[in-house]
UniProtKB/TrEMBL annotation:
This is Acetate operon repressor. It comes from the Bacteria. The lineage of its organism: Bacteria, Bacillati, Actinomycetota, Actinomycetes, Micrococcales. Keywords: DNA-binding, Transcription, Transcription regulation. Pfam families: HTH_IclR, IclR_C. SUPFAM superfamilies: GAF domain-like, Winged helix' DNA-binding domain. GO terms for molecular function: DNA binding; DNA-binding transcription factor activity. GO terms for biological process: negative regulation of DNA-templated transcription. Residues 75-259 form the IclR-ED domain. The gene is iclR_2. Transmembrane segments: none annotated. It comes from Microbacterium foliorum. The keyword Transcription applies. Residues 11-74 form the HTH iclR-type domain.
């Protein structure tokens, strides 16, 4: 997918509105306050409120009159329904994600690459009663942070990885020293050698994740399957077993996607 690294001259308002829409959808069905959305979109509160009000007139966002929180609007649903016929693979993936959750007893996910981020599309709960809630539908992470994005980034061409790291020197500041360029390159190499990514509680302490890339018919990693759970369930031997199951399901989904899009 193309990466929006620059704003076309004269379209600043569109870029700002797009950032707000992404922040609104990431907030899920509970919505978010204008303060939180302004922070996420790197806008002033007044600018965010003005743009949200305009988007509301168009039906792209909605506002709960009691709580004042903003959430996705009906026009987004209609647009998304049309776009889904081209981009959505959840229909192909849902039973595979469910199987992954059943076989591992951990929470299982499907995420898609969108530019420099991953977006969670599907979540299936495992049977183990203690769960991690780092990831749910609509949540976004930069590539290389959560296990899904680490798996995708690891299998991109080297020049794409280099360009991504150059574009995002803020990863270390935002996500900690373990996401500095050197440390991240080490984890990418380990992921590529192992076949799947391991996130040992680097986002939330005690919440571990495994991720495996899912490829399109050209061999590009555009999706990922992942598992999350509490750290004491991710010992060395079990990680190996979980990784084997995860890779088998990722290969199955890659084959299914390639076959469906011919």
């Amino acid at each position: 997918m193309d990466t929006p690294t620059q704003v076309v001259p004269g379209t600043q308002a569109i870029a700002r509105a797009a950032r707000l829409l992404r922040a609104v959808t990431a907030s899920g069905t509970d919505g978010a306050s204008v303060v939180d959305l302004a922070r996420a979109a790197e806008l002033s509160r007044s600018t965010a409120h003005r743009l949200l009000s305009a988007l509301r007139v168009e039906g792209l966002v909605d506002r709960d009159e009691v709580s004042g929180r903003w959430m996705p609007g009906p026009e987004l649903f209609l647009m998304g329904s049309v776009a889904a016929t081209r981009y959505d693979v959840t229909g192909l993936a849902r039973d595979i994600v469910r199987s992954l959750a059943v076989k591992t007893e951990e929470s299982a996910f499907l995420s898609v690459r969108r530019a420099d981020e991953t977006v969670c599309l599907v979540r299936e709960e495992g049977s183990f009663p203690i769960r991690s809630f780092v990831l749910s539908e609509g949540v976004r992470f930069p590539l290389g942070v959560a296990s899904a994005g680490l798996a995708i980034l690891a299998f991109l061409p080297d020049h794409d990885v280099d360009a991504y790291l150059e574009r995002h020197p803020e990863l270390e500041t935002t996500w900690g020293r373990t996401h500095g360029t050197s440390a991240l390159r080490t984890r990418l190499a380990e992921t590529k050698e192992r076949g799947y990514a391991v996130n040992p509680g680097l986002i939330v302490e005690g919440s571990w994740g495994l991720g495996a890339a899912v490829f399109d018919r050209t061999g590009r990693p555009e999706w990922a399957l992942s598992l999350t759970g509490v750290g004491f369930r991710f010992g060395p031997e079990r990680i190996t077993e979980l990784g084997r199951i995860l890779l088998a399901h990722a290969h199955q989904l890659s084959a299914r996607i390639a076959g469906a899009r011919r």
